Request: fold
Amino acid sequence: MSETLMLAVVLVPALIVAIVFHEVAHGWTALMLGDPTAKELNRLSLNPIRHVDPVGTLLVPGMLALAGGPVFGWAKPVPVRKDRLNNPRFGMMAVAAAGPGTNLILAAIGAVLLGIAAAAGLAVAGEEQGLLTTGLFYFILINVFLATFNMLPIPPFDGSHILEGLLPPSMARAYDKLRPLGMLLFFGLIALTWFAPDLGVLENTIGPPVNWAMDQYIGLAQGIAG
Reply:
């Protein structure tokens, strides 16, 4: 199996699972806090077809992976109506936190499975077994990266909803007016990673927490492997 094809076989399923669970977590949390919009639109399903954005979930991360860039993507956002939440301010914070929180749980599950695979000797025994452990490693990394990246306080990322909920009402209203500029800021951030790599934008912002979290998860896997 070529290295490029192997990378695609590993990354695409891992990214789809990470993104779909991330979005469904938003919808379920919103439902528990009073907003049934996602349920009404049948977006609480784990069926990837209901959540996959052909560009954001497949094309963009695939191209970035092949180009050696940072791998990230997005799905069709699960609809949440702030006005239908029982406590809109707290509710939006909880709904936002549910996505990254779910990714961290998935990363922990991946670490446990990686430890079990290593203990069973699958880490070094043949191409298929090597593919399994490589896939689990990237599954952990993708979930950690997705959770951390989404916590950036840039609209429409989850971190922006959490920050808005923490701000005083007057500042929160002013911050909310920045949302139409959110995607411009997002693509500006990505452009900097490509055209000004020496600035180390991602490395200096989310790099340290991603590296720290990966150390913890790999440590968990090593502890299980013995």
